[in-house]
Specification:
Helix content: 55-70%
Number of helices: 20
Order of helices and strands: EEHHEHHHHHHHHHHHHEHHHHHEEH
Radius of gyration: 22 Å
Strand content: under 5%
Number of strands: 6
Distance between the termini: 49 Å
Strand order of the largest sheet: 1-2
Length: 469
C-alpha cells in the first residue's frame, strides 16, 4: 500500500472525520506531539521493568525505540504497534540474575551487566521462537496455534507468572528493607499502591491522563518517599547530561547462558495471546475509522503471523543491545484508540524520541533514585494484574472448566508453577537435563512443559466431549 501524506485525512460522506490511518503521514506538528504522547505512555512501565531487573535504563529506552522502528519496518508498516518492556519475563529473569550475578543483584547496585549478558541469550532465543511461530502461522493458519497453545495454557501461565513475582513485589515493598527503615518502606509502598489504584480507576476514560496511572502513582509515591527521607539526589548531580547507554554483548560463550536461555524463551507462550489480542483490537478500531473516512478496510487481524515475526524482530534488537525483553504495548494501543491516530510514522517518531532520551544521563540517574518502596507498591498492583489477566483470558475465551481436560491442564500448571516457586529449593524441579538444566528445571518452565505435554496427549488421543453446566 503506498504511503500517503495528508494535512488531514480525507472527509467521509457524513462530514469531516479526523484521525490518521497506518499509512498516513501527519503534519510535522501533529507528528511530534502525537509521537511524544506515545513515548510518554510507554515510559513508566518500560523503565520500571529495567529498574526491577537491574538492566540499564538508557539502553532499555534506546532498544525500545530502535526495536519498535525495526518491527514496524518488518511488518511493512502495516501493523501500528509500539514495543516496550515486558513484565511476563521478569520472574525468570530475576531468577537468572540472582543465580548468576548474586553479588550485584542482591546489593544496592542499579545495573548488573554480568546477569544482563546471560539474559540476552534468552531474549534472542525468544525472538527465534516468535519468528518461527509467526512463519508457521503464516503458512498453516492460526488454528494450529490455538490447538498447541489453547487459552487454558496461556491463561494459566499468565497467572503463574504474576503470582510468582509476589516475592519480588513484597520484598521491595519492605520485606527486604533493613529493620530500622522497614516501617517507613512498608508505609510508602502501600501509600503508593493505593494512590496508583485510585489513579487507574478514577482517571479511566479521561484521555491521555487516563493512560498514565503508573506514572502518576510513581510520582506521588516518590514525593511521599522524599518526605520519609528515602530519596537521595547525589547520583543525579554527579551524572552527565549526555551519557552513552551501557551496551552489552550477549554471553554466547557461557554454557550457563544457554541453559537459562530456554527457561527465558519458553515464557513467550504467555505473550503470544497478548500480542494476538492487541492485533484484533487494533484491527477493529482501524477498520471502523477507515469506514468513517470512506476508505478500504485494512484487515490487519489477518496478519497474526506477521505480527509475531515483528515481535521477534523487536526481541532480536533488544537482545543484541542489552535491553529488556519486549512486547507490543496495550497502553499505547489504547492511546491510539483515544486519539484516533494509528499512523506508523507517528510510532516511528516515538521510537526516535526513545532513542534520543536513552542518551540523557540525568534522566537515567533520576529514574534510578526511585526508592525500592515505591517500586514495591507499584509492583504489588502490576504483578497482580498480570495474574488477573490470565483469569480474564480464560473467561473471555469461554474455557469450559467443567471439562476434565481443561481442569487437568490448568490445575497442573498452577500447582507446578506457583507451588514450585514457593516450595522447592531455588524454585527448581530436581530433573536435570545436561547442559540445558544441569541444576534442575525452573518451576515456571516446568509448568509450561508439563501443561503442553498433557494437552498434546489429549490432541493425539481423542477424548469424550464434555458440555458445561
Amino acid at each position: 500500500m503506498s504511503k500517503k501524506t495528508a494535512a488531514a485525512p480525507a472527509p467521509s460522506p457524513k462530514g469531516k472525520v479526523f484521525g490518521f490511518l497506518p499509512d498516513d503521514n501527519p503534519p510535522v506538528g501533529a507528528m511530534l506531539s502525537l509521537g511524544f504522547q506515545q513515548f510518554l505512555t510507554m515510559f513508566p512501565a518500560t523503565v520500571l521493568v529495567a529498574v526491577l531487573t537491574k538492566f540499564d535504563i538508557g539502553i532499555t529506552l534506546l532498544a525500545s525505540g530502535l526495536g519498535t522502528i525495526v518491527a514496524l519496518l518488518v511488518s511493512k508498516r502495516k501493523i501500528p504497534m509500539y514495543y516496550g518492556s515486558s513484565f511476563s519475563y521478569m520472574a525468570v529473569i530475576m531468577t537468572v540474575m540472582s543465580k548468576f550475578a548474586p553479588d550485584c543483584y542482591n546489593s544496592t547496585a542499579v545495573y548488573c551487566p554480568d546477569g544482563v549478558r546471560i539474559v540476552q541469550v534468552g531474549i534472542i532465543l525468544t525472538a527465534v521462537f516468535e519468528i518461527l511461530f509467526g512463519l508457521l502461522i503464516m503458512r498453516v493458519g492460526k488454528a494450529v496455534l490455538d490447538r498447541i497453545l489453547p487459552p487454558i495454557i496461556t491463561g494459566s501461565m499468565a497467572m503463574v507468572i504474576g503470582i510468582a513475582l509476589a516475592n519480588a513485589a513484597l520484598g521491595n515493598a519492605g520485606n527486604w528493607a533493613a529493620p530500622e527503615v522497614a516501617s517507613k518502606t512498608w508505609a510508602v509502598a502501600f501509600i503508593t499502591l493505593i494512590a496508583t489504584i485510585l489513579f487507574s480507576v478514577y482517571l479511566q476514560g479521561k484521555g491521555l491522563v487516563g493512560m498514565l496511572p503508573i506514572l502518576f502513582g510513581a510520582i506521588f509515591g516518590y514525593i511521599v518517599a522524599y518526605f520519609f527521607g528515602l530519596v537521595s539526589f547525589a547520583k543525579v548531580t554527579e551524572a552527565a547530561w549526555f551519557e552513552l547507554p551501557k551496551f552489552t554483548i550477549p554471553a554466547f560463550e557461557k554454557p550457563e547462558a544457554w541453559g537459562m536461555a530456554l527457561s527465558i524463551a519458553l515464557i513467550f507462550i504467555a505473550t503470544v495471546p497478548e500480542s494476538t489480542a492487541h492485533l484484533y483490537q487494533m484491527s477493529l478500531y482501524i477498520d471502523e475509522l477507515a469506514a468513517e473516512m470512506g476508505r478500504k478496510p485494512y484487515n490487519i487481524k489477518e496478519l497474526i503471523g506477521l505480527n509475531l515475526v515483528a515481535d521477534g524482530s523487536d526481541d532480536i534488537v533488544v537482545g543484541l543491545l542489552g535491553g529488556c525483553a519486549g512486547t507490543n504495548y496495550g497502553e499505547n494501543n489504547s492511546l491510539m484508540a483515544i486519539t484516533r491516530n494509528y499512523s506508523t510514522s507517528v510510532l516511528m517518531t516515538a521510537g526516535a524520541m526513545a532513542i534520543i532520551f536513552g542518551f540523557f544521563g540525568k534522566l537515567v540517574a533520576l529514574v534510578n533514585t526511585l526508592p525500592a518502596a515505591v517500586v514495591g507498591g507499584l509492583s504489588i498492583y502490576l504483578f497482580g494484574v498480570i495474574g488477573m489477566q490470565g483469569v480474564a483470558l480464560i473467561q473471555s475465551e469461554k474455557v469450559n472448566l467443567f471439562d476434565p481436560k481443561q481442569l487437568a491442564v490448568g490445575a497442573v500448571i498452577l500447582i507446578c508453577g506457583i507451588g514450585g516457586n514457593l516450595a522447592l529449593p531455588n524454585g527448581l524441579f530436581p530433573f536435570t537435563v545436561p547442559y540445558l538444566f544441569p541444576n534442575g528445571i525452573p518451576a515456571i518452565v516446568f509448568a509450561a512443559i508439563v501443561g503442553i505435554l498433557i494437552n498434546t496427549i489429549f490432541l493425539i488421543f481423542k477424548t469424550p466431549e464434555v458440555r458445561g453446566g
